[in-house]
Amino acid sequence: MANTADITRGMILNLDGSLYTVIEFGENKTARAAAKVWAKLKGVDNNRTIEKTWNSGETIYPVRVEKRTYQFLYKDDTGYNFMDNETFEQISLSENAIDAPQFLKEGQEVFVLVNTENDQVIAAELPDKIVLKVTYTEPGVKGDTATRAMKPATLETGAVIQVPLFVDEGELIRVNTKTGEYVERVKD
User: Which domains does the chain show, CATH number per domain?
Assistant: First the structure.
């Protein structure tokens, strides 16, 4: 059995029959009372975000999760369709089960989280950083780069992010999928 000392960021817990991912956690210690452990939790099978507090050492119920590599195929009326690279089995996930659907492009590999207790698909995660092509952006003004100014750019997936002025149309850039921010230019 696990207790509150085992909590880590990204862990999936079973609370009252629902699954929640630990976004952040901490411990409150006071001189007189016992320590308390708090966690900010995001619902996996629902869209709720909650905060939960336990007494230090209390039992928690983590869910064993396996990451499997799937390939994104296409999006249709049923949702986003993925294929297991080993078994060629296809699954469909709703948009709220994917951590950054705006950055998905056909053929891209993602990690699908599967509950090992019942083989239920929980969610899909994109890699932390991916390379995408800029399909449209306004040209930068020469000599206006000292201010760290940013401009909007449309990527090949349709997502719009802020990029530095020196980034031009047709260039490949690295994007952080967790924050949705520009990281760097990528050489061909």
Answer: 2-60 (2.30.30.30), 65-125 (2.40.50.140), 129-186 (2.40.50.140)
CA angle (114, 115, 121) in 5-degree steps: 45
Rounded CA-CA distance 174/182 in Å is: 6
Half-sphere exposure in the Cβ direction for 74 (13 Å, CA): 3
- pLDDT tens digits, one per residue of 86-134: 899 999 998 888 888 999 999 999 999 888 888 888 888 899 899 999 9
What is d(CA 61, CA 30) in angstroms, rounded to the nearest whole number? Answer: 26
- The two tokens of residue 22 are 């630990």
What's the predicted TM-score (pTM) here?
A: 0.74
Both structure tokens of 66: 């396996």
